[in-house]
Predict the 3D structure of the following.
Amino acid sequence: MTATKHDNSTQQPVDDGYIPDDPLTDHSYDGIQEYDNPMPGWWTALFWGTIVFSILYWMYYQNGITPDRSIHAEYSRAVAANLRKQFAKIGDLNGDRATILKYSKDPEWLNFGKVVFQTNCTACHGNNAEGRVGPNLTDDKWKNVKKVEDIVKVIQKGANGNAMPAWEGKLHQNEIVLVASYLLSIHGSVPPGQGLPSIPGETHVISDLDAPAKEAKTE
Ligand code: HEC
């Protein structure tokens, strides 16, 4: 059998007299030396290429040098476009009493208000608006709310020095109106005694909640 220089089918070192002309490194381990065989050029190029690519990728999509192209901007655009599509049916809602009461009886849009509530409000008000850090929103005791319209106003502007954050600018006006309608629709749904007890200052009832509908401004 004639051994070639690449034949390693036996465990024996094959000495065919081949001596590569690569230079030696100056490492020596117990007298064993190694040739200085750099990684192939294509491999090194790929390696540096991935690093350069990752920096460019990060700059383009993540760090805001190109703010309108970041993934976050793209997401916001997609959400806004989606909302516009959904709201095409109902137009821009006015936060007046009649509108809030109307949508508090509309199952399709109530479901929308519920999703807004669950996405943004449960951390402070609890899953069923029974109260957590923020007050119970299902009982008859209100602090910043005296009339139906005030629910929308509090959500827009916030209350108590941002303990209740202002949602104007963060939520679409329609989302604010529809979440207000949702709150009215679950009024009284948490049995008395089970939600968070009223917080200091919560003494009002909503005075015009049950007023006759004809008093409302026309829609
Ligand atoms: C960071 C916590 C927090 C989040 C999130 C939050 N709230 Fe509040 N909310 C509060 C606190 C605290 C109050 C009580 C403010 C006060 O004492 O005047 C409050 C009060 C309110 C009130 C008025 C209650 C009253 O009796 O006057 C309404 C209505 C309300 N929140 C609705 C919402 C809705 C709808 C959302 C989601 C879009 C939301 N909140 C998200 C903390 C929060």
